[in-house]
Design a protein that fits this description.
The complex is a heterodimer of chains A (560) and B (340). By secondary structure, chain A is mainly α. Chain A is built from 20 helices and eight strands. In chain A, the strands form four sheets. A two-stranded antiparallel ribbon of chain A has the order 1-4. In chain A, strands 2-3 form a two-stranded antiparallel sheet. In chain A, helix 3 (43-63) packs antiparallel against helix 5 (104-132) and helix 3 (43-63) crosses helix 10 (254-279). Chain A is globular. In chain B, a hairpin with a 6-residue loop joins strand 7 and strand 8. In chain B, the strands form three sheets. Chain B has a four-stranded antiparallel sheet. In chain B, strands 6-7-8-9 form a four-stranded antiparallel sheet, with no helix packed on it. Chain B has a two-stranded antiparallel ribbon with strand order 10-11. The relative contact order of chain B is 0.08. Chain B contains seven helices and eleven strands. The two termini of chain B are 63 Å apart. Chain B has 340 residues and is of the alpha+beta class. Chain B is extended and about 100 Å long. The chains are: A mainly alpha (560), B alpha+beta (340). At the A-B interface, helix 5, helix 7, helix 8, strand 4 and helix 10 of A face helix 3, strand 1 and helix 7 of B. Strand 4 of chain A pairs antiparallel with strand 1 (113-116) of chain B. The complex binds protoporphyrin IX containing FE and FE2/S2 (inorganic) cluster. Residues 265, 267-270, 284, 286-287, 289, 302-304 of chain B line the site of FE2/S2 (inorganic) cluster. Protoporphyrin IX containing FE is lined by residues 42, 44-46, 48-49, 52, 122, 125-126, 129, 134-135, 139, 142-143, 146-147, 149-150, 153, 220, 224, 227-228, 231, 236-237 of chain A. Chain B: Residues 231-322 form the Rieske domain. Chain B: Its cofactor is [2Fe-2S] cluster. Chain B: The chain crosses the membrane at residues 47-68, 80-103, 148-170. Chain B: Keywords: 2Fe-2S, Cell membrane, Disulfide bond, Electron transport, Iron, Iron-sulfur, Membrane, Metal-binding, Oxidoreductase, Respiratory chain, Transmembrane, Transmembrane helix, Transport.
């Protein structure tokens, strides 16, 4: 066989070898031409994936030179400013890696940039999933896996940030210690658990090293595997469009189109990170110096993904610390550092279940929502983002203060107010905008594009000519199913007996109304026909039915 | 239910129209320039080839930079080495990436294809078979008749992790002696010394308005100085005695307007290191808690709740500042049993 030219049906030799031993051809047949839909926002998950691969590669490089030890040494390397300074081996080896290993600083900087982009990409990816409703059945499990990946990503970032044992990261650990100690009953012991004794002790760097290069990456890797397995198993969602339905997936085959694009994406991300590592200094620990509990500089910032915690800590006033029966309960720390993030993250993790409970929808969804078609979900997402925005800004309030010459007090108070007001305002505005966009969609479907052309009728009336949408444009605007609140059945049955489970239903119906009472439904064929019957009087009828439409869909009382 | 389609506003006559629009089906495929024009396809091919060649050149560049531009000993030379190798790497990957993307977009088959989905749920028959098999398996174990096994098994499984967890938890916290939070190495007569040099401080050398960073004498000789420094570091400030308002029970803790306060923030433990002489305010750079040194280091702004603990000081016979005792309360962030 090897001497013959291969005929079309035969596998190439290495594949043939493997197939004879593993049945590989079955897998190839199943997967190589699998269809993957195309949309720029589907690349966000890939950006996370590829920056994680860069993290593994550069991380392997730098861990070969890093010494995870807190033993003290005296610096004797080339850096003049550090001559004779006492430092831990961890810090010393970081300097060695940066200044004496050719390419070492490049790898360190690439690693750090990759970490920032990794977590950024995870967050943006998550919001794309959120806003498009990709978390709906059957993908709730993948949402939870993804959410766990986010938490692990944060843990990975924080543990890595702490390894060089410089002043900044040491202070970060000290803050962590302070937060841990505030936890009721077990806080002090938890602090000992983490540090192996009193802060800082001799153990935290080696421990974080194990966490950072073994424990968390192994979990991330495993979960990414599971995450992608589920993406393949459930097939990717697709945006609505002509020809795309809940029962198909339209796109390009994995081999070669998708694979080539993916490889290209990976290379580009690798290349961009190399460019960043080459030109943009990040975490220049030699400017900060080795960890010492005593010095600190104003304006020091943690990595961006930790800023929201920092901001929450800054905003909470101190009087919340209380003493109960002789025991100290530091609510001024617990609330911002444990309770609030805990609630925010838990509600994010549980969101798919909350929404499906409110909608009563247990069907599979493979066509994504346009964010406007889920106004309350979209508004909740923006509202959550606004909370994070305020917290992140609060985490940089000293920089804002010096930059704009404002007083810290004034800024802090502004943020204290904003953290309550802004989410509500954002929610309201975002919901109105979404409903408005839906109304605009209706308008377009019913009356077509404005052409800017004005025509005069025999009667002397002027009207603007509207060009009807073509089928595909129209489909995009009418394809979604209207979502309506779950109706509440009466409290008593026909014989006047109180129905069990009524209370639960009543709550559920209220939640459901919160989600779906205000809505704009897609145009139906009948409505379009009616609008067309109105003929040239589009623009007049448009303004007439606009107002009742809004009031008609408010039904806060009708179901209650 | 009031949710009829009329609700959205238009007076609709009910005719035979469908309830919803029909999906119009996939739009027809528009060929690209490279599909119809051989010249354009050739040009695309050349672009892809050139991009891959540039990528290869980038790799060669990175290797050349590695051998010819060592990091040297100055920040500038290190930057240069980093940059050149980095440019090489970046070129390698960005060009290769651009090549792949361009290739896939302009030359690979761009007909959209359709694949059908099947519901995730298994068909009824499979579900029934699976459930039957599990039932058969369960009955093979005989657990329903032999309840004792179940109890014993659960006990064994529940206990098993302890063999791992107890040694781990036992050792991971060192000696678990959290009473160490309550003490520092300060004691009666111990000299205040400069941080980090360890030189003792004469009271007469501390001028009004100045702030001195202080560690206890002998700290640097400890086996693990940072553990102790994290608790014992102190800020010494001299105020004009007229500005100093001392609580009655703390009179005698200062010396001629010189006061010593713990430098560990009572919020979550950052060093409180920024002293503003004019206002006598001490600011923690981490979350901006602000302490009033002229008034018992009370919190006047920010997330901390408690004043900084004060170290009672005096001078020894040679005029050097010394501690009168340890702090009278635990320093640093609050913890559950702090007041016990
Ligand atoms: C280590 C972090 C993560 C990586 C590497 C990752 C990677 C990916 C990739 C490559 C895809 C397919 C392409 C795409 O839709 O973007 C995907 C899909 C998905 N991800 Fe993630 N992801 C991560 C974190 C998350 C998070 C934080 C969430 C949400 C909490 C999440 C939820 C999902 C869901 C539900 C899908 C299916 C999307 C669909 O079919 O439309 N992922 N992920
Ligand atoms: S640690 Fe000082 S204000 Fe938070």
């Amino acid at each position: 066989m090897s001497t013959n030219a291969r005929d079309a049906g035969a596998l190439a030799p290495p594949l043939d070898y493997l197939d004879q031993r593993t049945g590989l051809a079955k897998v190839l047949k199943e997967f190589s031409r699998k269809i993957f839909p195309d949309h720029w926002s589907f690349l966000l998950g890939e950006i996370a994936l590829f920056s994680f691969i860069v993290l593994l590669l550069t991380g392997t490089f730098i861990s070969l030179f890093f010494v995870p030890s807190m033993d003290e040494v005296t610096y004797s390397g080339p850096l003049a400013t550090m001559q004779g300074v006492e430092m831990s081996k961890a810090f010393d080896s970081t300097l060695h890696l940066s200044f004496e290993v050719t390419g070492g600083l490049l790898m360190r900087q690439m690693h750090h940039w990759a970490a920032l982009i990794f977590i950024g990409a995870i967050v943006v990816h998550m919001f794309r999933i959120f806003f498009t409703g990709a978390f709906r059945k059957p993908r709730e499990i993948n949402w939870i896996i993804g959410f766990t990946l986010l938490i692990l990503g944060l843990a990975e970032g924080f543990s890595g940030y702490s390894l060089p044992d410089d002043v900044l990261s040491g202070n970060g650990l000290r803050i962590t210690d302070g937060v841990v100690k505030s936890i009721p009953i077990i806080g002090s012991y938890l602090s000992y658990f983490i540090f192996g004794g009193e802060f800082p002790g001799q153990h935290i760097i080696p421990r974080l090293f194990t966490v950072h290069i073994l424990l968390v990456p192994a979990l991330i890797l495993g979960l990414i595997g599971l995450h992608l397995f589920l993406v393949v198993l459930q097939k990717h969602t697709q945006f609505p469009g002509a020809g795309r339905t809940n029962k198909n997936v339209v796109g390009y085959p994995i081999f070669p189109v998708y694979a080539a694009k993916q490889a290209g994406m990976f290379f580009i991300i690798f290349g961009v990170l190399a460019l960043m590592g080459a030109t943009m200094t990040i975490n220049p620990v030699w400017n900060y110096g080795p960890y010492d509990p005593s010095p600190i500089s104003a304006g020091a910032q943690p990595d961006w993904y930790m800023l929201f915690l920092e901001g929450a800590l800054r905003l909470t006033p101190g009087f919340l610390e209380v003493v109960i029966g002789g025991y100290t309960l530091s609510l001024n720390i617990l609330i911002p550092a444990v309770v609030v993030p805990g609630l925010l993250f838990t509600s994010m993790a549980l969101y798919p279940f909350i929404e499906s409970w409110a909608s009563g929808d247990k069907r599979e969804h493979h066509v994504l929502d346009r964010p406007r078609n889920a106004p309350v979900r979209t508004a909740l997402g923006y509202s959550l983002l606004s909370v994070f925005l305020v917290l992140v800004l609060a985490g940089t309030n000293d920089i804002i203060a010096t930059h704009f010459s404002l007083s810290i007090e004034a800024i802090t108070w502004t943020f204290r107010v904003l953290i309550f007001v802004l989410p509500v305002v954002t929610f309201t505005v975002a919901k109105r905008v979404a409903l408005g966009l839906q109304r605009k969609d209706r308008e377009m479907v019913l009356h077509g594009h404005e052409t800017g052309k004005i025509v005069r009728f025999d009667t002397g009336e002027y009207i603007e000519v509207h060009q009807p949408l073509d089928e595909e444009e129209r489909w995009l605007r009418v394809q979604h199913e209207p979502r309506r609140p779950i109706p509440l059945l009466p409290a008593q049955n026909e014989r006047g007996v109180r129905r069990p489970g009524y209370r639960r239903d009543a709550i559920r119906s209220r939640v459901s109304r919160f989600f779906y009472a205000d809505r704009v439904e897609p145009v139906t064929p009948a409505e379009l026909a009616a609008a067309q019957a109105h003929g040239g009087h589009d623009e007049i009828s448009a303004s007439q039915h606009d107002a009742p439409e809004l009031t008609a869909t408010r039904e806060g009382s009708s179901a209650g | 239910m009031s949710d009829e389609s009329t609700e959205v506003g238009l007076p609709v006559e009910q005719h035979a129209l469908p309830q919803r629009f029909e999906n119009p089906g996939l739009p027809e495929h528009h060929p690209r320039l490279t599909d119809v024009d051989d010249g354009a396809a050739k040009r695309s091919e050349r672009i892809v080839v050139v991009l891959f060649m540039l990528s290869a050149l980038g790799t060669i560049g990175a290797i050349v930079a590695y051998f010819t531009v060592p990091p040297g000993a100055t920040i500038a030379s290190i930057r240069l080495s980093t940059m050149l190798i980095g440019f090489g790497l970046a070129a390698t990957f960005i060009f290769a990436g651009a090549a792949s993307v361009h290739w896939s977009k302009s030359l690979m088959n761009d007909h959209e294809k359709i694949e059908y989905r099947h519901p995730m749920v298994s068909d009824t028959e499979t579900r029934e078979q699976a459930s039957e098999m599990l039932a058969d398996g369960m009955s093979d174990t005989g657990l329903s008749r032999r309840g004792a096994i179940k109890g014993a098994m659960i006990t064994a499984v529940a206990l098993a992790p302890l063999g791992f967890a107890v040694p781990l938890i036992g050792s991971v916290g060192g000696d678990w002696d959290i009473s160490k939070f309550r003490h520092t190495m300060w004691k009666k007569g111990l000299r205040l010394t400069h941080d980090p040099t360890g030189r003792p401080i004469k009271a007469s050398d501390v001028t009004i308005g100045s702030a001195v960073h202080v560690i206890p004498e002998g700290l640097n000789k400890l086996e693990h100085p940072l553990d102790e420094k994290s608790k014992a570091m102190v800020l010494v400030i001299r105020l004009d005695p007229r500005d100093l308002h001392e609580a009655p029970d703390r009179e005698g803790w200062s010396y001629e307007g010189i006061v010593a306060y713990s430098k560990v923030c009572t919020h979550v433990g950052c060093p409180v290191a920024l002293y503003e002489q004019r206002t006598h305010h001490l600011l923690c750079p981490c979350h901006q808690s602000t302490f009033d040194i002229s008034n018992g280091a009370k919190v006047i702004f920010g997330p901390a709740d408690r004043p900084l603990p004060q170290l009672p000081i005096t001078v020894d016979t040679e005029g050097y500042l010394v501690a009168q005792s340890d702090f009278h309360e635990p320093v640093g962030p609050s913890f559950w049993e702090r007041l016990k």
